[in-house]
Amino acid sequence: MGHLVIAVDGPAGAGKSTVAKRLAKRLGLGFMDTGAMYRALTLKALRRGTKLEDAEALVALAHETAIDLVDEAGRPLKVLLDGEDVSDAIRTPEVTNNTFYIARTPGVRAVMVEWQRRMGEKQSLVGDGRDLGTVVFPNAAFKFYLDADFDVRCQRRIDELRAKGVAVDEAALKRDLAERDHADFTRKVGPLKKAEDAIIIDSTNMTIDDVVEALVQHIHKQK
Ligand code: C5P
Known about the structure:
single chain; alpha/beta; five-stranded parallel sheet; 9 helices; 8 strands; binds cytidine-5'-monophosphate
């Protein structure tokens, strides 16, 4: 297929990461979870005690940070922050709820976008995030926007956490997801937006397998 970038964007809890990872495996491409990168930098800022309102400090922090994604067959994506495996540490509610400070800072997004473009130049990949089809890879061969009703996205997150044995406060989770949606849709730089040429998939009534199959069909059809 030659060099190929496939962008999968959409709101939190739409199933993007799972779908993108499976699609990558199916097509033999790399996988890039850009949310994991924003999370990793958030974790570093929290540990350092960096003031999250201080845009300059966040940008400086981004410049002195190395984030690597290690995608090994059959294993969850490994996220390395300055060489340390933080794959689990970046999934805590504390990190999740503070990522928006990092995500709203234009100078930080610029650094992230550059890292992501470099990864996309090095290898063919499927990437998932919020701004891949609009900002990072405007020329991506395929752009998908994966959506699902709010209640279904909440329920998926609840099920996911419970499956891991985590106690869930449902009301708090719903409130947090609504806040994340709001922050994602309204930030000035790199907001969550459907690219004009994106294929929109509403996964409300679909399983993960259904969604992956739908994406594969679109890709084969257009090739
Ligand atoms: O996808 P995930 O929920 O792991 O992303 C974590 C946070 O990072 C999101 O709340 C979103 O605001 C931010 N993000 C972003 N741009 C991306 C990917 C994620 O701003 N491309």
